[in-house]
Amino acid sequence: MQDTKVDPKLVAELTEREEKRLEDSTPKSYELFKRASQHMPMGVASTYHARDPYPVYFTHGKGPHIWTVEGQEIADFHNGYGCMVQGHAHPLIVEAIQKRAPLGTQFGLPTEDAITMAEHLSGAFKLPQWRFVNSGSEATMDAIRVARGFTGREPLVKMFGSYHGHHDYVMVSLGVKDFGEVGPRDNYKSISYGAGIPQCSIDLTVAVPFNDIENMTKRIERMVAEGNAPAALIMEPAMMNLGVVLPDLEFLKAVRAVTKKHGIVLIFDEVKTGICTARGGAVERWGVLPDMICLGKALAGGTPCGAIGGTEEIMAKVNDGTVFQVGTYSGNPLSMAAARASFEQVMTDEAYTHLNHLNDRIIAGCDAVCAKYDFPGYTVGISSKGCVNFASGKITDYESFIKHQDHELVALAWLYNFNRGIIIAPGREEEWTLSITHTDADIDLYVSAFDELIHDVTA
Ligand SMILES: Cc1ncc(COP(=O)(O)O)c(C=O)c1O
User: If you measure from the C-alpha of residue 370 to the centroid of ligand 1, how many angstroms do you get, rounded to a whole number?
Assistant: First the structure.
């Protein structure tokens, strides 16, 4: 129930009703799931595609909509976990891919489009040197290695609860549901996210609270005093894997100051905020310049791609061969062509203006629903990203997210959306991603489904 005061019995009843409705409308998906389970754990290619009791499978997408194998058209607010801010099968991106494919898609040799993209990113994100990879995880993994090679240190600091990909350095101190074991805010314990992460990796990664200058600073100063100075601090400038939690600008400035003071490489993980919130991501929006930036997701219009930006001084370690930053598919011509089309022709100033308009509309609509039913929820959003917090208490970091968010209600909201022709990313921590192809009608559909949900849970 947490602080929405919605009767958990009512939520359980509605969840059962909506789950049955979903299952009745997705018989083909169930058949595919049975087939898929023979050869894929959970019947999916990645655990993030899974759903209990079975996932819905999809065939195709166009603009703001995607289609299930049952043929149901769905307004897509999931957008591939934020990759598809351009909308599905954008004609200019399709054209770029179609032009590139017959010329060869992979050489393991350099091509000109990567140079052009590095020039574009240098201009937008204000860091001069770039390398390309194939995912957000690769970007954060390699950025951390570069930072370690540059500083000659090993410890890593992250924000408690933040997600930076699926490699061992960062699968620490997230997804924790019980804060009883975590310890005080200036001395959080490091906790593995699932099995298989070596203890040495867990021990090297220290988590501090987001938006808490005092406890973040205390922990870092103590690490330095104990001869355990961090190589890097990695953070999302706005936390996106617990809905959306905006930064207090003073916090970003304090992080910048303490990392500069101790020679700690500040890495902004802009895998979600980059491209989706502004062409130059959080750097453009908040004006705090880190030492390194990681990009992924929306960078290449739905083709696999990531990027790492850095200062001249730091990237000199890659330039002189001290640190190996490599990858067979890095800067592959297909992704680079799609990234160029996206950057040069699709994510224009008008596109961002449209996203801001849509986000204002969805936020105003959902806020009006909360007011109409006197429901203690509130919205947060920037540009293409946003969420409704099913909470009255303010969510400023992971600890307050766990304390205030009504997680059962979030799960019910997902079912309500799906059964009314809308999809958002599953999981209690996900936010919506709007695409430049959404229209006011898509937004109004979302708001009307939200209205129905809040009407039913407050009845
Ligand atoms: C902030 C952030 N960083 C890194 C990643 C990892 O990206 P990928 O899944 O492409 O490896 C994600 C993925 O959700 C993310 O949200």
Answer: 31
Counting Cβ atoms within 10 Å, is residue 216 exposed (0-12), middle (13-18) or buried (19+)? buried
The CATH number of residue 292's host domain is 3.40.640.10
- Distant-in-sequence, close-in-space partners of 25: CB < 8 Å, separation ≥ 6: 70, 72, 419
CA of 78 to the centre of ligand 1 (A): 14
Average pLDDT of the chain, as a whole number: 96
Q: Ligand 1 center to residue 25 CA distance, Å?
A: 31
CATH number (domain holding residue 358):
3.90.1150.10
CA 31-35-41 angle, to 5 degrees, is 120
- Do 291 and 420 sit in the same domain of this protein? no
Q: 248-278 pLDDT, tens per residue?
A: 999 999 999 999 999 999 999 999 999 999 9
Cα–ligand 1 centroid distance for 217 (angstroms): 26
User: Which residue among 163, 210, 275, 308 has the greatest number of ligand 1 atoms within 8 angstroms of its CB, and so is best to mutate?
Assistant: 163
Among residues 346, 371, 399, which one ends one of the domains? 346
pLDDT at 444: 98
Percent of the chain with pLDDT over 90: 93
pLDDT at 4 over 80: no
User: Tell me, what DSSP letter sits at residue 247?
Assistant: P
> Quick one: 375 and 285 in the same domain?
no
162 CA: nearest ligand 1 atom: 1
Same domain, yes or no: 368 and 251: no
The answer to whether position 37 is within a domain reads no
Atom of ligand 1 nearest to the CA of 273: 1
Calculate mean pLDDT across residues 49-73.
Answer: 97
Write out pLDDT tens, residues 210-231. 999 999 999 999 999 999 999 9
Task: Give domain status of residue 39, yes or no.
Answer: no
Residues 260 and 401 grouped into a single domain: no
Residues 319 and 359 in one domain: no
- The Å distance, Cα 159 to ligand 1 centre, comes to 15
Determine contact, residues 72/60, Cβ cutoff 8 Å: no
Is there a domain that residue 50 lies in? Answer: no
Phi, psi dihedral angles at 383 (to 5 degrees): 50, -115
pTM assigned to the model: 0.97
**Coil/strand/helix, residue 391:** coil
**Single-letter amino acid code for the residue at 119:** E
For residues 310 and 393, the model is more confident at 310
Peptide bond into 53 cis (omega under 30): yes
Pocket of ligand 1 (CB under 6 A): 81, 135-137, 140, 163-165, 236, 240-241, 269, 271-272, 296
Residue numbers of the domain that contains 377: 2-25+72-76+348-458
Does the pLDDT of residue 428 top 70, yes or no?
no
